[in-house]
Amino acid sequence: MALLGIKHAVTRIAGRRDHHAAAQYADPGLVRGYIAAYESGRATRYFQSRLHVVEAALRPVSGALLDVGCGPGMLVRHLLDTRPGDFRITACDRSAAMIEAVAERTEPGEVELAVARIEDMPFPEGRFDVVVAMGVLEYSAARPAVAELARVVRPGGLAVLSMLNPASPYRIVEWFLYWPLLRLLGRLERLAGVPASRRHTVPRSGIRALTAGQLRRTLRRAGFEITDVVYYDTTPLVPPLDKVLRRWRREWRGHLERTISRGARRWQGTGYLMTARRAGKRSAPALRTVSTAGAPPA
């Protein structure tokens, strides 16, 4: 009976996480805010640093590419503009509002679009040369999601996965101190009669981030061989100091290579990128190598 109760509790918690994750970008207004955050806002450095490392990971490859958890298509639009003809892109997201945003940012027929969860995608086995899961595993059931990525990428194909870094000082302070304090402040403001529009609040996100070791083991169990791990958006700042100081410090925009690390500063990365190859003999021709002459260093 006790075991059954634990299973029911776990199921309820997973259901709440899934609800919070799905609710975040069901509203088109929130989608527009996500797009704007890439250019201006507290999360801009994070988004730009992540895009920098993803771009570097994709530099040597081309072919059929799946961007799952594509959001409003920021990576899709970037690849169409900077690598025209190199990829046959499929964009997939569980949010119909996000897929509608991708359609608005692309030409008809330029990208294949699909509304689906990463844990259950409507694609045949081994269809893609490259799969990108950028900012989606934190909101998913990681083990079935990675197994599904292994199913749809061909043997020898590349997987590019990003993950929030739960071991970074930034995330520890944000999740276990800053956000709880803001929620407590909001409850006190409600008791004091402060209008809802003026109260402090942090919506429940459904985030469940894995450490690099946990993600590495999950990938290996699914049949992937890890090829690289790089930490991005490295910073010694923690909330809310980052919000204050970054109003004046903007030099990172011209030096995104300084926001990443594979070495001593990796513990400061608020997120990390892991690349892996699906094990097994290649069942399709080798990926065409794209020239990196003149490309900026990663």
Automatic annotation (TrEMBL):
Methyltransferase type domain: residues covered: 66-160
Swiss-Prot/TrEMBL keywords: Ubiquinone
Family annotation (CDD domains): AdoMet_MTases
Pfam families: Methyltransf_11 (PF08241)
Protein name: Ubiquinone/menaquinone biosynthesis C-methylase UbiE
Lineage per the UniProt record: Bacteria, Bacillati, Actinomycetota, Actinomycetes, Pseudonocardiales
